[in-house]
Specification:
Keywords: Methyltransferase, Transferase. The chain is an alpha/beta fold and about 325 residues long. The protein contains twelve helices and nine strands. The strands form two sheets. A seven-stranded parallel β-sheet has the order 1-9-8-7-6-5-4. It has a two-stranded parallel sheet with strand order 2-3.
């Protein structure tokens, strides 16, 4: 990994377009036409191709693009269900009990990512935020079932906090120095905010953590190294920026609109210059957008994605060459 460490002038905020080859493989696996090991091999191949492309485009940070097909929450031992006939989260909790703390397959995912990362590029691991996982459990389980496993909500919060602590420690020991928490679509509650802050507070020293979430969550966070916001959703006005002034040592990341055109660059540059009235340039980064909302990206979508990468590089050259 050398001396590379965030922030980068151009970063990756979320998932990238899943290629047709991988989407087809997932469909064949779901229909029993290929084995899990065969699917895994295709995932590995497509992730390597993605990393190579990002390197060629001059991006100094790489991810797996969100190309893995398993469910993050189910990755913990205690969430796995022995009876696959009922895949509901409620059934999994009922059968297996409390969230396990032993292992998560994302550790092997990162080892693969690190092993195949090119020189002078830093691997970054995306993870759903603790608060997002909490809200999913509460949303997808009936109150009676949840109370039979977790009679007190604080026990669930403790289990999730410890599970994340162990996972982050495992990633750090594996060589990971950059993690991003995703919480953009999660609901905001006091418990979710408290859980996020606890995990941030208890993470390994030296682990850089970026947080991509709605502003209402970000302003309640304490200890994140970077805050990523969608620049075009009306939340980056002056009054909102002032809420982040007290975190001057943190990075402020603008997540580009999904397919910006060249005509948008002047507008984006003007917003960047406004931001620089409040934070140092070294604490600013541009982020590639999240393609997670595209269920079936077309070939044209992929072309636009890589055009966005080039536009981000052009915008970074405008801003950081001043």
């Amino acid at each position: 990994m050398g001396k590379l460490f965030p922030p980068f002038k151009v970063d990756i905020a979320g998932a990238l377009c899943v290629p047709f080859t991988l989407r087809d493989a997932r469909n064949r696996y779901q229909h029993g036409q290929i084995s899990l090991s065969a699917l895994r091999a295709i995932e590995n191949k497509e992730i390597c191709k993605l990393m190579e492309r990002l390197k060629l485009e001059g991006i100094e940070v790489v991810t797996d693009g969100g190309f893995r097909s398993y469910d993050f929450l189910e990755g913990w031992e205690g969430i796995r269900c022995r009876d696959n006939a009922d895949s509901s989260l409620e059934k999994k909790l009922e059968v297996t009990g409390r969230i396990g703390l032993l292992h998560h397959p994302i550790l092997e995912d990162f080892v693969f990512l690190l092993k195949n990362t090119a020189e002078n590029v830093l691997p970054k691991q995306h993870i759903p935020s603790p608060g997002k996982m909490l809200m999913r459990i509460l949303r997808e389980t009936e109150a009676g079932c949840l109370k039979s496993v977790y009679p007190d909500l604080n026990i669930l919060l403790d289990d999730l906090a410890v599970a994340y602590k162990k996972l982050l420690e495992g990633l750090y020991e594996a060589g990971c120095r950059y993690v991003q928490f995703e919480g953009v679509k999660s609901m905001l509650t006091d418990e979710a905010a408290r859980l996020n802050n606890r995990v941030l507070r208890e993470r390994p020293e030296g682990l850089f953590v970026a947080f991509h979430a709605a502003t209402d969550m970000l302003i309640r966070l304490h200890g994140a190294d970077a805050y990523f916001l969608n620049y075009d959703c009306g939340i980056c006005d002056r009054s909102r920026l002032l809420w982040f002034v007290h975190e001057r040592e943190a990075v402020f990341g603008f997540v580009l609109s999904y397919y910006p055109d060249e005509e948008e660059l002047d507008e984006l540059q003007a917003k960047m210059e406004e931001v620089l009235n409040y934070i140092p340039m070294k604490h600013l980064t541009l982020c590639l957008p999240d393609a997670d909302n595209l269920l079936n990206p077309s070939e044209e979508d992929e072309v636009k994605q890589w055009k966005t990468v080039k536009l981000a590089k052009d915008m970074a050259n405008r801003i950081f060459s001043v």
